[in-house]
Amino acid sequence: MGLRKWIFAATYDWQMGGAERAGLTDLRRAVVSRATGDVLEVGSGTGLNLSHYGTDVEHLTLTEPDPSMFRRLQQAVERYPGAATALRAPAERLPFDDDSFDTVVCTLVLCGVEDQPQAVREIRRVLRPGGQLLFLEHMRSEDEGHARLQDRFNWLNRAMVMCDCNRPTRRTIATEGLRVEEIVETDFPKAPPFINPLVHGRATCPDARPRRERHSDVSRP
């Protein structure tokens, strides 16, 4: 698995090239450019989103758990003109205090985390009251027939790109305490049908925090 992840990281930008040129880059820009204030990007991969952040970002923190991806992310951060910090950390265990960020960004991340509900709970925990989650994710279709297609081909999706194509991402965001304010459904450029739908949108963090959530004991760097 270590060699497979190394190969995946080394070829990721090349693998995504066709989709990026066919419209994925434009979708990234539309999502990421809305980030403001103190920003956390979860699962930053090789840093493909870095060029899309605008001047409303005061400080950018990027996390990535995979060491091969992280090395490439560090190189991209060195070229970033603003204030940015890269850390190795999984989405399910973010090393930040509660209420640390105004914006959290995740693009093509929640399909591949080990525990999607826990990852969203962590995102909610580190968001300040009224903060926003900006997301671009492919997810399980709400059409039952298409969802069954996704279930049948999920093994292939995992083999190809190491993520699931049938996760209930929209429902997870809502049930784990964030309020979905906007969501737009589209197709993933240059991808097989079972990858769709691709959604992008915005969710906000309510003022009240569920009592079940635990506070992090790790301070933000």
Descriptive overview:
The chain has five helices and seven strands; from the N terminus they run αββαββαβααββ. Strand 2 (57-63), helix 2 and strand 3 form a beta-alpha-beta unit. 36% of the residues lie in helices and 23% in strands. The chain is globular and about 40 Å long. It has helices at residues 2-32, 67-79, 116-126, 144-161, 169-175, and strands spanning 37-41, 57-63, 84-87, 101-107, 127-138, 179-186, 198-204. The model is unreliable at 212-221 (pLDDT under 50). The protein has 221 residues and is α/β, with parallel strands linked by helices. The protein has one domain (2-204): Vaccinia Virus protein VP39 (Rossmann fold), CATH 3.40.50. The protein has a seven-stranded mixed sheet, with helices on both faces.
Q: Give the rounded overall mean pLDDT.
A: 92
Q: Which residues form runs of ≥5 with pLDDT under 50?
A: 212-221
In DSSP terms (H or I, runs of 4 or more residues), the helix count works out at: 5
What characterizes the major β-sheet? 7 strands, mixed
Could you say which structural class the secondary elements and strand pairing correspond to? alpha/beta
Q: Do you know the CATH topology?
A: Rossmann fold
Topology, element by element:
Layout: H1 2-32, E1 37-41, E2 57-63, H2 67-79, E3 84-87, E4 101-107, H3 116-126, E5 127-138, H4 144-161, H5 169-175, E6 179-186, E7 198-204
